Amino acid sequence: MADAEDVRRLASALPHVVEIDSDGFDFRVGGKGFVWSYPERRPGKPRVIRTDVAVLYVGDEAEKQALLLGEPERFFTTPAYDGMPLVMLWLDKVDPDRLEELITDAWRMRAPDTIAADLDTTAD
User: Fold this and answer.
1) What SS3 string covers the chain?
2) What is the average pLDDT value for the chain, to the nearest integer?
3) Any residues with CB less than 8 A from the CB of 48 and at least 6 apart, and which?
4) What's the pLDDT tens digit per position in 65-113?
5) Where does the source fall among the domains of life (predicted)?
């Protein structure tokens, strides 16, 4: 079972990551978000920052659908994210190793090529 502190630890360990000041967590690389707290929007109420749910960049609609259909107990989406390559992940439904894989993949897809090469260098 993972939590917001696992997200923070894993995302911060990647090269060139900046954490944006927020009520939860919000990580960027090259100015692009790759994982952040879910800003739940409920009709007629202020949004609530959910630190038990991570929004992850997944690259494209095919990957999004694969995760949603393949692991519906972990991943979900909302109409606000239709057409966007983003999924929401229940952190308490994933172990830290899988979370690391998901965060690293999101980072790789958002990082400029010159920055992404730094991860390969540090992994050697």
Assistant:
1) CCCHHHHHHHHHCCCCEEECCCCCCEEEECCEEEEEEEEECCCCCCCEEEEEEEEEECCCHHHHHHHHHHCCCCEECCHHHCCCCEEEEEHHHCCHHHHHHHHHHHHHHHCCHHHHHHHHHHHC
2) 93
3) 39, 40, 42
4) 999 999 999 999 999 899 999 999 999 999 999 999 999 999 999 999 8
5) Bacteria
- Answer yes or no: are the C-beta atoms of 49 and 39 closer than 8 Å: yes
Domain-wise residue ranges, the chain: 4-115
Please tell me the pTM assigned to this model. 0.91
The pLDDT value given to residue 124: 47
